[in-house]
Each structure stands twice: as structure tokens, then as C-alpha cells.
Amino acid sequence: xxxxxxxxxxxxxxxxxxxxxxxxxxxxxxxxxxxxxxxxxxxxxxxxxxxxxxxxxxxxxxxxxxxxxxxxxxxxxxxxxxxxxxxxxxxxxxxxxxxxxxxxxxxxxxxxxxxxxxxxxxxxxxxxxxxxxxxxxxxxxxxxxxxxxxxxxxxxxxxxxxxxxxxxxxxxxxxxxxxxxxxxxxxxxxxxxxxxxxxxxxxxxxxxxxxxxxxxxxxxxxxxxxxxxxxxxxxxxxxxxxxxxxxxxxxxxxxxxxxxxxxxxxxxxxxxxxxxxxxxxxxxxxxxxxxxxxxxxxxxxxxxxxxxxxxxxxxxxxxxxxxxxxxxxxxxxxxxxxxxxxxxxxxxxxxxxxxxxxxxxxxxxxxxxxxxxxxxxxxxxxxxxxxxxxxxxxxxxxxxxxxxxxxxxxxxxxxxxxxxxxxxxxxxxxxxxxxxxxxxxxxxxxxxxxxxxxxxxxxxxxxxxxxxxxxxxxxxxxxxxxxxxxxxxx
Amino acid sequence: xxxxxxxxxxxxxxxxxxxxxxxxxxxxxxxxxxxxxxxxxxxxxxxxxxxxxxxxxxxxxxxxxxxxxxxxxxxxxxxxxxxxxxxxxxxxxxxxxxxxxxxxxxxxxxxxxxxxxxxxxxxxxxxxxxxxxxxxxxxxxxxxxxxxxxxxxxxxxxxxxxxxxxxxxxxxxxxxxxxxxxxxxxxxxxxxxxxxxxxxxxxxxxxxxxxxxxxxxxxxxxxxxxxxxxxxxxxxxxxxxxxxxxxxxxxxxxxxxxxxxxxxxxxxxxxxxxxxxxxxxxxxxxxxxxxxxxxxxxxxxxxxxxxxxxxxxxxxxxxxxxxxxxxxxxxxxxxxxxxxx
Lengths: 490, 341
Description:
The complex is a heterodimer of chains A (490) and B (341).
Chain A: H1 17-22, H2 24-30, H3 33-44, H4 47-59, H5 68-94, H6 102-116, E1 117-122, E2 125-130, H7 133-152, H8 160-179, E3 195-196, E4 200-201, E5 204-205, H9 209-232, H10 234-244, H11 246-251, H12 256-281, H13 292-305, H14 310-326, H15 333-352, H16 356-380, H17 396-400, H18 410-429, H19 432-452, H20 458-476
Antiparallel strand pairs in A: 1-2, 1-3, 4-5
Helix pairs in contact in A: 4-9, 5-9, 5-12, 5-13, 5-14, 6-7, 6-8, 6-12, 7-12, 9-10, 9-12, 10-12, 13-14, 13-20, 15-19, 16-19, 18-19
Chain B: H1 2-29, H2 35-66, H3 73-90, H4 101-128, H5 137-158, E1 163-164, H6 167-170, E2 175-178, E3 184-187, H7 188-210, H8 212-222, H9 224-229, H10 234-260, E4 262-263, H11 267-282, H12 287-307, H13 310-327
Antiparallel strand pairs in B: 1-4, 2-3
Helix pairs in contact in B: 2-7, 2-10, 2-11, 2-12, 3-4, 3-5, 3-10, 3-11, 4-10, 7-8, 7-10, 8-10, 11-12, 11-13, 12-13
């Protein structure tokens, strides 16, 4: 009977009513005693609540050991991007609208806060408002929501790609406006707004990075819980329904247009909140903070985490922003190197995980291949191994004897990079043992390119990697790490 | 069908009247500058517009056949410009070319077109083909990833500085004076660009209308499944479309390099947006529409730059795009999309 029930495949892990009754005694037994009680209570908490509880529990013990600079670079940025990703997730994940102008709301929030709680003068006008943060944040968030309403109303007429391009233009127009095209000097051109007050709530001032960190953590937790409630509510379900099939949703009586605009507006409001705290934390708002790169970063977080999943946004923000900051030009290069090789190993693991034999063969083969190539080149062309290791630290010896380091890599490194891309494209097309045969030289080539070209510019490399990540996630696992696979409607 | 044709003719008529009114206003009533200024701007706009038209064709063809907005197209154009620059440097640079100049320029165009064409093929194979049956949002994000990847790869390989073609040193600073020494001035380079773009577009039209491949392309863009049932391999046709569109973008990149001398890794972003604007204004999916739209966007940008100022010109172009999308999403020459249920 249940074998032929449509919609429930045989291997489904769903527990039917009968099985539940069967296991009832077992469940009661499990809830006995103090540990059982606590365990049961834990199971009753919704996932967002668990996350809200767990995130501080994991992060707090590390807090005393982290320096102010690192807390700003890692902790605060992760939280800001988590908040941005949560907002974008409402638009892209819940409502299924591609909003490429999202970063403009982030910028608008930051500029609104900086304008209302700061001082600057430009083009003959002096603006000096020093509002308390509760008012200026409120105004910034409401203005962003209204702007989102305005942009979202274009989604009444535009679908899919057209909406994407209009929002992209909106984002561009924002950058052009802040940079140059503002006649009253409100945005202070490309210099941005620099004299911005720290957050001050009813006279109580937050002026340490630690304080901002706690405040932002609070914001993220509150937004997370609110979004969880919304996503489980009528509105959330209606969003998902209109995402899957707008026509069917309309037929069922859902106000699809109003839902879209609501999603835009809510996402914009969250971005505005993130923007105003960001402006206060770095005491300024500058046009380059809201460029396309930031947009891509937010998208990388949302896509990697999995559109539609709240947990995914937090995990995505931690992974992407931590690696973004590690690959920054100011952080110690060896950390970037270790991260790069770890990412390489992870990539190999995911492409070869079908067979342990091949996995081991790939790694062993790469090591041996490298040693052989190094020995041959050393004998034939001594300049090929005479270069310097760029800030190798404890790995210097290892790299010197394995990777080719020509004295002036310039051209060679460029050709290596191009060849590497060709090899990777070939790799994707091949299957089985052939893939292994190409994989070994590709890995070695990647190491060569990294040591000779990429390690000197980690700040550019990270963007190349994020671009590649977007393509890879889309082709391999479009639902991201924590998203659920989308239902295809034929 | 009749209504459709009438609508297009109406659009064209409206456009013609608007242009006429604007021309009369600019020539007779423009307060400070005279007619020479207006026509000089128009000539510059047509030159710029032919570059945009070539970019718009790639967008339009890919959109027509795949319903995919290829964000990476602008960056293919950028790579084309860099390939042209590479050929120029390899053959001795603009000041002492190793071979005759005409041959050198031809070489630059051919190599850049082939290079960008193959790049387009690789992008299609790698980033779009696996997503053929995915939800609509997936290839868009993948395209965003490709664009970002190409931009930053170029930054990595070629550095952040501007590269200089010195197109006028290479060819000539001279040109044609229309209406006396103080009249409108067209440099020979501009003539070459306009003629080159025009020839490429004619070749494309001939290809689409008179060859088997062109027929297959039209069939696939009309109905992919039905075309497959008639024995056409859609994958091959799509690959060919990408190759042709990207090759045109590569040619546009070399033209831009020759005209404006400066190429750098971010040049593709804005040019891509304007090419897309041109494709939408002309009616996305329509080849003559893309040409017309490219010329219009070039003209409008040039006028806005001349009469307003440089910063606002981009905003004007974007404003027009948003307006066209909201009021007439099918553009000037496009067919209104019917949504099948």
C-alpha cells in the first residue's frame, strides 16, 4: 500500500503515523530523568531559537582572547554580513526575486545614519545633526523600507531578468549619486562622510568594538527570531508559494504583488539596520563601501549558505567573511596560504569522494609528481628553482623543495594561470581514471600559480575564488549548504 | 501579426518624430552652442553607438535563444580588448609596427574575435550548460560569478593600470571635415569603426537569414523542443550563438581600444550595462532592434555628455532604460512576450 502512495518514496525518512505509535513507548522512555527532560525541552525549541542560543554560547568563550582589531575584522564583519544575508534571503530566498541593487539599501542606511548623527560640510552647506542613535537608526530603517517599497513596486510589472537588471541599475545609480551627482553636498562626494557619532542610546554611549559586537549580536539574534516567526507564518508560506509558482499562488487568492513588495521592503529595512550600525562602527560612510564587490560578497554568503535557510545565512557568513578577511592584504600571508591549500584539498575531496583509492592516489600522485618535476627542472634549468618563497614562515623549506620558483616568474606565472583554467575546464569534462590523470598536474600547477602569482595578491585572489565559488555552487549544489532542494514544476 | 507590425511601425514613427523635434530644438533654439556642436555630438554618438550595437547583438542573440541574461558578456568584451592589445604589443606596438598597419589592425580584429569567441564557448560549456534545466535564478547567479571571475582574473594578470592602444598614432589623426574647417570633424578611425561595425552586422544578418545555421538558430529560439524534434541539436546551436555573440563583443572591444585608447579590467561592466540597455530599448531578441538600440544609446549618451555633464550621462541612460522597461518592455522592435500557462 504505502509502496505505491504517490509523493512518498520508499526510502523516505519521513515517519508515518504507524511508526510513530510503534515508537511511542521508546520515546517516553527517552524522556525519563533530568537529562531526558532537558533533551526533550531542547527538541521543542525551533531551529532559529536553537541557533540564537548556540551562537553566543560558541562565540562568548573566545571573546576575551580576541584583540580589538581582530574582533572588528572578523566578529563584527561576520555579524554585519550575516544580517545583510538574512535580509537578502527574504527577497531572494523567500520571495524568489533577484535583487541586484540590495547593496544600495545597505549604503542608504549607512548614509542616512551618518547624515543624521554626524557633521560635515560640502559645497557651501554645513550639516550638523547629532541625533541620538535610537532616532537616527529608526529613521534610516524606515527610509530604507520606503525606498524598498518604491523599488519593489517596479516588480509589479517586471519579472525575473528584467527585475534583476532594473535593481542592478538602481545600485549603480546609488553609487554614481553618492560619488558625484549630488548638488547639495549631502553625501560629500567621493570623500564620504567621516565625522560620524558612535551609537548613543538615550545618552548611553557605545564606543568600544566589543560594545558594537554585542549590540550587533543582539540585532542578529532578534532579526533571526523575527524572520523565523515570519517564515513560519501565513506570510512566509505565501512567499514560498508565490516563489514556486506565482500564477498558482495568485489563483489561490494570495496577493502576489503585495507579497513581493513586502519582501523587498523588509529586506531593505534589514539592510538599512546593518548599514547604520556599520556607519557607526567605522565612524564613517564612504562610496567604496557599497560597491559591486560587496554585493557579490553578500550573494556568495546567501548562495553558499543556501537560499531560504536561516541557519545557512549564519554559517555562510562565517565561512565567507572569515576567508575574505584572512585573504585580505593586511593579514599575515601564511594564514592565507594554509587556507588556500585547505580549500584545494577540500575541493579535491569533493570531486574524488566516490572512491578512497583515487583520493589517496590523487594526493600521493601530486606529491610524487611535484618532487619529480622539481628534480628534473633543477637539473636542466637551474633558474627555474632559484626564486624566493614569498613570506613562507615555517613552510618555507617544504615549498622550496616541491614547487617550482623561477627567479622572475612574471610571464610564466601568467601562462600558468591560463593553463590552470584550461586544465580545470578539461577536468570537469572528464570522468573516472582520466580525471585522476589530469588532476595530478592540475593540482601541481595550481600550487605553482599560487606560490608565484596569487600569494602576492591575496586580496584579488579572494574575489576570483568567490566568483568561481558562485559558479561551482550553482552547478554542483544549487541549494547551497543548508537549503532544501527546490521542487521543479513541469 | 498585423497588430504586431503596426505596433512596431508606430514605435518607429514615434521615435522618428521625437528625434526630429529634438534635432530642430537643438539646432535652432539651443541657447549657447550652434548646429556644429550638435552634429559633432551626433557623429561621436553614432561612432560610440556602433560599438554598443555590437555588444548589444551578443546580449540579444543569447537572450533570444536561451532566455538568459548573460552578465558576463561585458567582460568578454573587456577580454577581447586585452587580446587585441596583446596582438598589438606582440607585433611591435603602435609606433613601430612590424607589418603593414592595415594588416596589423586586421590581425588584431581576427585574433580578438576568435579569442573571445572561444572564451564565450568555454563560459557556455562550463557555467551555463549544466544549468539548462535549473530554476531561472541559477544561471543568472552563475553569470554573475563568471563576470566577477573574469574581471578579477584580468586584474590579476594585467594589473590595475590603464593600457594604451594609441589608436590615433597607429592609424591617423586626420579625418574628414564636413562644412568647412570649423565644421563637423570625423576622424578616419571613426569612419573605420562605423564601417567595420556595419559590415559585421550585415554579415550577421546574412548568416541568420541565409544559412542553415541561421535557420537552426531561429528555430531554436522560437521553440527549442520542437527544433530538437526536427533533428536540430540545440546544444550545438546554442554554442554557435555564444561563439558568434562573443566574437562580436571581442571586435567591439578592439574598436573601443582603438577609439578611446584606454582599456582596463573594469571597462566591461558599464559597457555591458549599456549594451544591455541597447538590446532592451531595441527589443531584446531582435537583431535589427539591437543595432537600432545601440545607435540610440550612443547618441543619447553623447548628447547627455555634451549638453549636461559627464557624471549625469550614465544616469540618463539608466533612466531611459528603466522607463522603457516599465512602459514598453518589448522595446522598439521586439515582439510582446506571451506568457504560456
